[in-house]
Write a structure and sequence with these properties.
There is one protein chain. By secondary structure, the protein is mainly alpha-helical. Among the domains are: 3-43, no CATH class; 71-267, Orthogonal Bundle (Citrate Synthase, domain 1), CATH 1.10.580. It has 20 helices and 2 strands. It has a two-stranded antiparallel sheet. Helix 5 packs across helix 9 and helix 11 crosses helix 19 (389-410). The protein binds D-malate (MLT). The site of D-malate has 7 residues, from loops.
Length: 434
């Protein structure tokens, strides 16, 4: 058995009693109350999910397994000659909560290597899709097409014990994650580079191989690692993580769950937002005549925009401060592309927009989120096809959602099935008739 799987087994055995005790002895203790506003308003803020993989504090931002982003970047072993940690090491950390040693990272890498070959039928299916299909549709389809290989689906029908479900989900997760970079890069080259496919290089790590197959030189390997890590998880309530969790709670296997998660991510209110930010930014640049505007000009532009619309990339459902994922990417930009025109626009918006939103009282959170910065980096390194950005988000998010699903099966979380009411019932509650 692999080191990672063995470590995970130890952790699961140690963790199970905590969940069991909570369920058995404290199952009736109240966690939260729910208002009509929350029932109609997208279940906002209702505390009804549990995960130890990440936690989103509104004022601090995301912590992965208790660590902030700068701590993750400092502690997870780096790929040799790279600035960023390896995705393999980060995945080990997400799953186990332990910082991996170099040997443990190398072992995850060799596990992925063994499983990375994408079946040729996946490429044939992708090639047969209309070339103007959205890359997210292609990505989700490629993943769905491999569902027939699910180990969980097969073992379940052979009578797999509930206590061992997590192992089959783990195997499916490893098999699937190992293939994602190649499927994504294939879609990119097929759609936007005349189908000139670059074969995978087994000598490279997850992020390095992705950059290689995209056909983009250094430091795009680090951009890929950073991007996948930053987008991996944002606790459980966001649409992609929640969709993956919900679908897998029916014991649909990892292929169904990750493909469904991508379909949720493809929405403009979720993962597609980074594409919208970049489109908007180019519009701003055009209106400003392609020059760096003065702060005063930019303020006027923002006031004008706010008369009829919003500033994309600002605000967040949970966060009440600048998204630390934005700050991490800003730091990367300051180091690698400080003079890039688009980055200068983003930076000026960072200065100008929050005070205006605060002054107008328009947003609960006037600060920029991850999407305000991520497209700029992709554009700079030559990925100019906005619609592909969400696929990159999806590779990253799969790391977190797979980790969550493995743990959900390990701890025996139940089929998700909230209760619905009719509008009349809500009215009765509202008017005190019940
Ligand atoms: C995410 O990363 O999923 C987004 O920031 C959305 C969210 O957390 O609700």
């Amino acid at each position: 058995m692999s080191i990672l799987k063995e470590k995970l087994r130890e952790k699961i055995v140690a963790e199970r009693p905590r969940t069991e005790k909570l369920m058995k002895e404290f199952g009736n203790v109240k966690v939260d109350e729910v208002t009509i506003g929350q029932v109609i308003g997208g279940m906002r803020d209702i505390k009804s999910l549990v995960t130890d993989i990440s936690y989103l504090d509104p004022f601090e931002g995301i912590r992965f397994r208790g660590l902030t982003i700068p701590e993750v970047f400092a502690k997870i072993p780096k790929v040799p000659n790279a600035e960023m940690p390896s995705v393999e090491g980060f995945f080990y950390f997400l799953l186990t909560g332990d910082i991996p040693t170099e040997t443990e990272v190398a072992e995850v890498r060799s596990e992925f290597d063994k499983r990375r070959e994408v079946p040729s039928y996946v490429f044939n299916i992708l090639k047969s899709m209309p070339i103007d299909s959205h890359p997210m549709t292609m990505f989700a389809t490629g993943i769905m097409s491999m569902q027939k290989d699910s180990i969980f689906a097969k073992d379940y029908h052979k009578g797999l014990k509930k206590a061992n479900y997590w192992e089959a989900y783990y195997e499916d997760a490893m098999n699937l994650l190992a293939k994602l970079p190649e499927i994504a890069a294939f879609i990119y080259r097929l759609k936007y580079r005349d189908g000139k496919i670059i074969p995978s290089d087994p000598k490279l790590d997850f992020g390095g191989n992705f950059a290689h197959m995209m056909g983009i030189d250094k430091p795009y390997d680090d951009v890929a690692r950073m991007y996948f890590i930053l987008h991996s998880d944002h606790e459980s309530g966001n649409v992609s993580a929640h969709t993956g969790h919900l679908v897998a709670s029916a014991l649909s296997d990892m292929y169904y769950a990750i493909s469904a998660m991508l379909n949720g991510l493809a929405g403009p209110l979720h993962g597609l937002a980074n594409e919208e930010v970049l489109r908007w930014l180019h519009g701003v640049m055009e209106k400003m005549g392609g020059k760096v505007p003065t702060e005063e000009d930019m303020k006027q532009f923002v006031y004008e925009t706010l008369k009829t619309g919003v500033i994309p990339g600002f605000g967040h459902a949970v966060l009440r401060k600048t998204d630390p994922r934005y700050m991490a990417q800003r730091e990367f930009c300051l180091k690698h592309l400080p003079n890039d025109l688009l980055f200068k626009y983003v930076d000026m918006l960072f200065k100008v927009v929050p005070p205006i939103l605060l002054e107008q009282g328009k947003a609960k959170n006037p600060w920029p989120n991850v999407d305000a910065q991520s497209g700029v980096i992709q554009w700079y390194y030559g990925v100019k096809e906005y619609e592909f950005y969400t696929v990159l988000f999806g590779i990253g998010r799969a790391l977190g959602v797979c980790s969550n699903i493995i743990w959900a099966r390990a701890l025996g979380y139940a089929l998700e099935r909230p209760k619905s009411l009719t509008t009349k019932m809500l009215e009765d509650i509202a008017f005190g008739k019940k």
